[in-house]
């Protein structure tokens, strides 16, 4: 979720960390390339390549490039083009050679070209990788980590890049999550022995049915034994650090704005957004083209209804290929509060249904007690509601004033707030996730388990499966479709299949939905003989009469 609070910048663009001194400008470009430097007396000639000598920086860090100068300079946001007041435009063009014996060999070419103080039409620069991953969420980072683990196991060098639109890893994820560690146990089995942000086990689990003035306690349909109440933003920051330790290059602050195709409609990477665009769409004086990140494999992990993922699904008709149904959505509104210590119960988990929503509207609320006196509270409203005047934000305000909820929040302070959409289509709405040149992973494909209200563990597992398929494509020449085959044979498929009728059951109303769900969950144990279908697409469900 988006948050309006600024967070720690400790993970901000770690592979492009800028350090400035009085005499030199140091830019860390890559984690694992030989150090290349330009001496302080180097003169950059106009239009001719510069001979570079390999050396190790005085700081002992490899991959540091030193640009010594005495004049002022400006650095564009994308970190690739630098323009000095002397009139020299320095382009660092990074090329990867895939024809050599060692895949992903990095070559650097630096050219000095004459320009004005601002390049009005700079060339679009390109960086090539073995794998490009869009989105530094649980799915994308799990894929990156798994790829690098396989590289170490097989003694193979593959270059992996993760591009993230947030200013830092975790910037677009608001805190608060009941985390099932199943996928993490597989990905990083030693996580319990490390200083991870997963430290608050679920201590108690409640399920209430709310009326306007009462809270009726029901048997909890969610089994949260062994799960943890966590800050998801802290988790992905921790995973980002793990990925970088393995050699993954993460670039926060870059929004992927377009898919790159070759002449055969094969996806070959993504392009980042242009900079310096005026409100009317015209190019301002500081206009700068985005950067092309090209990959032999592209993995899309943008989250629910990612713009590039939706374009790919439509272009390659991925829903039609598996005859999957349309996706259904919900809007989740969340706040993180700091409450009085006497009211704080670390590990307490509460879910509700009923009020303030009417019986024709599917949805519910949650409250999770994290550490440090913090509580995450939110309301999820299905977007197929019939009443065009229903306002999810106003319903959330009503919820916080319920007699059973208000006392927990009184005297507290809101720390964060945000909203995001959720995939609720489940098993019936999963598209074919493989396209020419890559795959869709995580919530972009819709792996949320609706009755559990959990998608982090399934997103992580899908990223791991896609990483294994991508590695086999690049290293052994297999087909990316093995991702789809392995997905159907994984615990993701079994879990989502058993939960497939939960969400469409509520198309018949609140009471019938609860009855059908109870029969399937408690009696049939997910083995309902029929698969229910979703109703109308969300945008067609509104009753305007």
Question: What are the salient characteristics of this protein?
Answer:
single chain; 545 residues; alpha+beta; D-Amino Acid Oxidase, Chain A, domain 2; 8-stranded mixed β-sheet; 7-stranded mixed β-sheet; 28 strands; 29% strand; globular
Structural account:
Helix 8 runs antiparallel to helix 9. The protein has 13 helices and 28 strands. A hairpin with an 8-residue loop joins strand 23 (348-354) and strand 24. Strands 10, 11, 16, 17, 18, 21, 27 and 28 form an eight-stranded mixed sheet that branches. Strands 14-13-23-24-25-22-26 form a seven-stranded mixed sheet, covered by helices on one side. 22% of the residues lie in helices and 29% in strands. Among the domains are: 14-98 and 106-122, no CATH class; 204-229 and 328-423, D-Amino Acid Oxidase, Chain A, domain 2. The protein is of the alpha+beta class and 545 residues long.
Please tell me what the overall shape is.
Answer: globular
Number of strands: 28
Terminal Cα span: 34 Å
How much helix is in the residues? 10-25%
Residue runs with pLDDT of under 50 for 5 or more positions:
1-120
Structural class estimated from helices and strands: alpha+beta
Brief characterization of the structure:
With 545 residues, this protein is an alpha+beta fold. Strand 27 and strand 28 (438-440) form a beta hairpin.
